[in-house]
Design goal:
The protein starts with 7 loop residues before the first helix and ends with a helix. 39% of the residues are buried. With 293 residues, it is of the alpha/beta class. Helix content is 40%, strand content 18%. The chain has a seven-stranded mixed β-sheet with strand order 4-3-2-5-6-9-7, with helices on both faces. Strands 1-8 form a two-stranded antiparallel sheet.
């Protein structure tokens, strides 16, 4: 085989050679558009000084480009049947290590120590859409040694990650991402760029982790409990969402008092509030009750 796997002919050749059947449970869709691939690599801002952690390399399509751009690539693949395929397709590169395992169960700090002298990774991935959010939030919430995350995700999810207050896409995911990282939508990707063709459009998004969150809050867990309560019942007012939450135990009069002190009326809806306002609300409840239970 000559050339990159991103060439549809080469992808089909490898799939036939190894009799690969697409596994829906792993969300396997193979990118076959070189222009889009270069967009991903460019958006990730990878240099030879970087060690890249790739999630789900598949047959190695993106991995080939990562190996040429980065100093080192660590590729974690959950599908055991693809390990010998990767040994073949990546045989020309001596700066890649393939690990068979579930990224959600990997010790990322240990990987950083073993492969990158404890320094942070840049993450790159064409993520299975069914598990996009758990993987991304795992990297962000657990304070993993990750500098940035550049991923191909479902377009709708990418829009939610970078949405602002008052928009249809704005919600708990938007706020969670904005607390940990700056989101940049690098490219939209149509269905015909993949084999097999997925049912939804995709997008490339880069999340650059903040060294320090953009807002200060006394109790981060309380703030996110308030956010979850607000968007679990999106059509309800913020007051009703918090009052009906199974995580929280606030009386209506206390909620209305906090809203009034913030200059908001009792009928306000959560999708109009900024991250700073949720932090302010959380601090007011902390001040009122001195604890979160």
């Amino acid at each position: 085989m000559e050339g990159y796997l991103v060439n549809p002919k080469n992808t089909i050749e490898i799939l036939r050679k190894y009799n690969i059947r697409f596994q829906k449970k792993f969300g396997q869709n193979f990118l076959v558009d070189e222009h889009v691939m270069k967009k991903i690599i460019g958006a990730a801002q990878i240099t030879k000084d970087d060690c890249v952690l790739e999630v789900g390399p598949g047959i190695g399509t993106m991995t080939q480009f990562l190996c040429e751009a980065a100093g080192k690539v660590i590729a974690v693949e959950i599908d055991k049947s693809l390990i010998p395929v990767l040994s073949d397709t990546l045989s020309a590169y001596d700066n890649v290590s393939v690990i068979c395992g579930d990224i959600l169960k990997q010790d990322i700090k240990e990987l950083a120590e073993r492969y990158n002298n404890g320094r942070s990774f840049k993450v790159a991935a064409n993520l299975p859409y069914y598990i996009t959010t758990p993987i991304i939030m795992g990297f962000l919430e657990k304070d993993e040694p990750v500098e940035s995350i550049t991923v191909m995700v479902q377009k709708e999810v990418a829009e939610r990650m970078q949405a602002g207050p008052g928009t249809k896409a704005y919600g708990a995911l938007s706020l969670a991402v904005s607390y940990y990282a700056q989101a940049y939508l690098a490219a939209n990707v149509p269905q015909n760029c993949f084999i097999p063709r997925p049912n939804v459009a995709s997008a490339v998004i880069r999340l650059t982790k903040y060294k320090k969150p953009p807002v200060e809050v006394k109790d981060k867990e309380l703030m996110f409990a308030l956010i979850r309560a607000t968007f679990q019942q999106r059509r309800k007012t913020l007051c009703n969402g918090i009052k009906n939450s199974g995580e929280l135990n606030y009386k209506r009069e206390d909620i209305e008092k906090v809203l009034k002190n913030m200059g908001l009326n009792a009928e306000v809806r959560g999708e109009t509030l900024t991250l700073s306002q949720f932090a302010q609300m959380s601090d007011m409840f902390c001040q009122m009750f001195n604890d979160f239970s």
